[in-house]
């Protein structure tokens, strides 16, 4: 777990022992945290939306290790993509960045994946209602200079719970409560982690593979002819290298590389005569460097990273390619290139329990989109740069901790918001980023009475948001995104 001097009621760490034996998903765990709201349709495998202190899901940054998982095309992420058996710890920041990087509007969820150092073996089985079954296998072997961990998870559920169907397939004139059809979910996950340390050199490799399939129930009539589903394959590779310095003033230099590939296939087949498909392919590459310097009571962490996201869509109607005619959605290739340059300055008093930090980041963004099935395709492009910054002061002893934070964060427009689908939903490349200025005060008290430990925490925050991005539609049903007036949260 990263060491953060701003630890307060605005920042929380859940360690493996806090959740590993609870048989909960990540969304279940996060839903118990004060200030976090989880929205999910009933049933295993359905989409999950997260909100921190009233934010939208797009305003929340979701990291796995050091990689930002948010999709550049739609801004979304699968909160339950990683099984809890493969999680070492969960870091939650409700308004500021974790460590380095761009300051968000809606907080940060960071998952640190399983990275053991001792020999261990674990097998767990869980069974539940509506055909729920889960099998987890985990093995770690420690060698002289490195440890190798392997894990796999199989999860399945029929999801055939009872539902009030408005127009039953057997009797359309009546609303009948009956088991849902075509709502099953199946997922297979594989995880490999190898960590090594030789003298001053630390190296970590991790590989994650997910394959899942989810039936899409017809909630209107629960038709047995419905074959609609979503299938997904994803492969993520990460490499982290850390040089621990013995040179004065230089603490370490960290290098990181991540590669993520995902293929999502949406099949729309409500009856035997209809078969529409949408194949979404996403690739993401990330490389970064983060040195650390310490002089007296000051720590300086400059950082630089570059990320490339490519999104491609392929669509068919009854096995025929979609026409790009300005009405139906076009097949597109959208690309986003980002460069983050910034630094974090930290100070820790040597005589008082007082610390402070300053984080500044400059984001350079290059976006483009082109229709693949258009007769004379035109490339749309947008180049922007954004600044974020935050400042924090912390004072506290073993019992009482107080934290004051100020931040200016942004949520940049997604590729879909900028360029649309070239059909009935038009883009708006003049969109401004959502911007927020946040003030937060938090107090946390810890004490022990009669061998019983207890914590009391409270926080107050004010956030002013400008240029909120919303969808609007004209009388003919054509839509686009635009910026609207300001909002304030307290």
Keywords for this structure?
five-stranded mixed beta sheet; mainly beta; 17-stranded antiparallel beta sheet; 490 residues; 28 strands; Maltoporin, Chain A
Kindly describe this structure.
With 490 residues, the chain is mainly beta. The chain has one domain (11-489): Maltoporin, Chain A, CATH 2.40.170. It contains three helices and 28 strands. Strand 13 and strand 14 form a beta hairpin. Residues 1-7 have low confidence and may be disordered.
Unreliable residue stretches: 1-7
Which range best describes the helical content: under 10%, 10-25%, 25-40%, 40-55%, 55-70% or over 70%?
under 10%
Number of strands: 28
> Which architecture does the CATH hierarchy give at level 2?
Beta Barrel
In short:
This protein is mainly β.
Question: Secondary-structure map with pairings?
Answer:
Layout: E1 11-15, H1 16-19, H2 26-30, E2 36-40, E3 48-52, E4 61-64, E5 67-68, E6 87-93, E7 108-113, E8 120-127, E9 133-142, E10 146-157, E11 162-165, E12 176-179, E13 185-198, E14 201-215, E15 229-244, E16 250-268, E17 276-295, E18 298-317, E19 320-321, E20 332-348, E21 354-371, E22 379-396, E23 400-411, H3 415-419, E24 434-449, E25 452-466, E26 468-473, E27 479-484, E28 487-489
Parallel strand pairs: 4-7
Antiparallel strand pairs: 1-6, 2-3, 4-5, 6-7, 8-9, 9-10, 10-13, 11-12, 13-14, 14-15, 15-16, 16-17, 17-18, 18-19, 18-20, 20-21, 21-22, 22-23, 23-24, 24-25, 25-28, 26-27
